[in-house]
């Protein structure tokens, strides 16, 4: 299995091209199930999760094409198989996003239950309750969600008791083809949901309230194909901002805009990282020293849970203490013992961790069991004395495109060890 070797101590300087957002690409690809027309997605990232979604859509019967050189995905034709098998769903939870579109358009779907994952139990009850409110009949049997709506889905008023990105996306897509009006109240407001809504609108959907926590969808009879450019990945960009900052460097995060970062910007600035909008993107640079700053993860526009591990790595070398509280997932401190092995002083208790900054980390062999935890170890390795080897790189490849080449391009001493 591939590993990443980092020799710490280099200052990062230069520009990094930020790819299309993974968390926008996956739901956007599921829109291919809502139409027989051709859906073209541009600015598509070449990530393992995108390949998993392409395989899943291919299994459903769509014609799929991924032109990596042009960074384009083409989806064409209709579905003829309505089952999402355990083999693919267990690889990627976001596979659940085919449920709403299949049910809305084909009135039936059989999707494997995603089950637990490394960062917590992550149930899908909000997805299922919402679809039931829209008239679907749902049975759970032998690890599968068996869903049907023989007379089609009907619009409903759905109040989410808890903010969920995936449930908002699944129900938004389902509602575009439901009969009548659907209201999604306490909907998630992540920029990726706005991107999905705008793509659906370009396919002929009627959606109001885009960007707010209240989406109103007027169902239509059919949707047509479209071409849509995927918005830049704010988590990839934020990750590289932390990487530059921990080395005392400066990088231009090409193609990004300040608005998509949410509260992460304020935390970075308070910690001593300048984030400045320029014509070509956002420039992240460390001004002087780093200061310990608290962070609490929250739904957008709050501090993104997907940035928590990277920010913790940064805080591990800041002056003073930082309290980091995780409110979204119950088991998302798996990077703590690994960062500690590199010399970080972190005490995690329940949902909070106190990080007491140290002057220097030291390189070590480390591994992590999820995507953002893995990249936080790379960030730590960039500032550590000596060599760090990050094992289990396949997690990284799910969400970062050529992370080692992008970092080497701005001066990091980093390479992939094959095998
Ligand atoms: C998405 C992102 C993921 C990010 C997360 C939170 C994608 C592909 N993934 O995941 O990177 O970390 O948002 O920003 O976009 N919950 C329930 N019942 C449900 C659904 C969710 O209890 O039916 C809970 C979850 O366990 C979690 C919280 O709600 O505690 C938020 O989860 P959710 O926003 O749904 O995350 P995902 O859509 O899975």
Blueprint (SSEs and pairs):
Blueprint: E1 3-7, E2 13-17, H1 22-30, E3 39-42, H2 48-60, E4 63-67, E5 72-76, E6 83-84, H3 86-89, H4 99-106, E7 108-112, H5 125-133, E8 137-141, E9 144-148, E10 157-159, H6 165-176, E11 181-185, H7 191-202, E12 206-208, E13 214-218, E14 226-229, H8 234-246, E15 250-254, H9 264-271, E16 273-278, E17 281-286, E18 295-296, H10 308-315, E19 321-325, H11 335-341, E20 345-349, E21 352-356, E22 365-367, H12 371-383, E23 387-391, H13 394-399, H14 403-408, E24 413-417
Parallel strand pairs: 2-15, 3-14, 6-7, 10-11, 18-19, 22-23
Antiparallel strand pairs: 1-23, 1-24, 3-5, 4-5, 7-9, 8-9, 11-13, 12-13, 15-17, 16-17, 19-21, 20-21
This protein binds uridine-diphosphate-N-acetylglucosamine.
Structure, described:
By secondary structure, this protein is of the alpha/beta class. The chain has helices spanning 22-30, 48-60, 86-89, 99-106, 125-133, 165-176, 191-202, 234-246, 264-271, 308-315, 335-341, 371-383, 394-399, 403-408; strands at residues 3-7, 13-17, 39-42, 63-67, 72-76, 83-84, 108-112, 137-141, 144-148, 157-159, 181-185, 206-208, 214-218, 226-229, 250-254, 273-278, 281-286, 295-296, 321-325, 345-349, 352-356, 365-367, 387-391, 413-417. The strands form six sheets. It has a four-stranded mixed β-sheet with strand order 22-23-1-24. Strand 16 and strand 17 form a beta hairpin. It is elongated, with a radius of gyration of 21 Å. The mean pLDDT is 96. Uridine-diphosphate-N-acetylglucosamine binds at residues 23, 26, 93-94, 120, 122-127, 162, 164-167, 188, 305-306, 328-329. Uridine-diphosphate-N-acetylglucosamine binds next to helix 1, helix 5 and helix 6.
